[in-house]
Amino acid sequence: MIYFTGDTHFGDPRVLRLDRRPFPNMVEHDVTLIQIWNETINPDDEVWHLGDVMSARAGSCDELLAKLNGRKHLIVGNNDPATTTGSSGWDSVQHYAEIRHDGHHLILCHYAFRTWNQMAKKSINLHGHSHGRLKPLPRQFDVGVDAQGLRPVTLDVILRRKPIGGGGEEFFEE
H or E stretch including 121? Predict the structure, then answer.
């Protein structure tokens, strides 16, 4: 199975205030996100993390990635330091990727695009960075944890949701 996520911001206390994540402290935040990840992802699953993994002050990215199930690919975000991008726990690291999955052409980047490759041929832009606050374009989805109930999601789950405004979890119908 292939999953997508982003903007986990492990060890970054700013997300408690700026994104109003429902945790009293970073320890509970990080433990809960790791638990949710591992409840969702099996060891043989593939995960595309679309940036902003962890704070440089949060410790070793190698140690964090060893706690998380799955084969992990990083699409670099604006808050990913060299200690994150250089971790040996990634199967690949890049700023942008195009993949085919379930008959769809996916454009992966930390940032949302106004236009993207093969947009007229119904390609799909998956991104993070906006923390569920950006109104999406058609076939554009924020896969960051703030927009996805704090968990990695499959393409099937993303495509089944019908946006009714805003882009956050509370603005989707199943």
Answer: none
Distances (CA, A) of 31 to 8, 157, 167: 12, 24, 26
Q: Spell out where 17-82 has E strands.
A: 46-49, 71-75
Q: What is the pLDDT of residues 13-71, one digit of tens each?
A: 999 998 899 999 999 999 999 999 999 999 999 999 999 999 999 999 999 999 999 99
The whole-angstrom separation of Cα 4 and Cα 141 is 10
Separation between Cα atoms, residue 80 and residue 60, nearest integer Å = 13
pTM of the predicted structure, to 2 decimals: 0.91
CATH topology of domain 2-173: Purple Acid Phosphatase; chain A, domain 2 (3.60.21)
State how far the Cα of 95 lies from the Cα of 19, in Å rounded to an integer.
24
| Domain parsing of the chain, residue ranges | 2-173
Burial of 96 (0-12, 13-18, 19+ CB in 10 A): middle
